[in-house]
Amino acid sequence: SSYVGLTTANALFHLNSMQAMEAAKLK
Asked: What are phi and psi of 18, to 5 degrees?
């Protein structure tokens, strides 16, 4: 179960950084 939690956290982090990069592009 810890593996699933780790994967979920990693996916959320990846999504966050992708959104941050998109926001930086828009600026």
From this structure: -65, -40
End-to-end Cα spacing for the chain: 39
What is the pLDDT, as a whole number, of residue 16?
95
- Please tell me what DSSP assigns to residue 27: -
User: How far is CA 16 from its chain centroid?
Assistant: 4
Q: In this predicted structure, what is the pLDDT of residue 2?
A: 79
State how far the Cα of 15 lies from the Cα of 20, in Å rounded to an integer: 9
| pTM for this model (two decimals) | 0.58
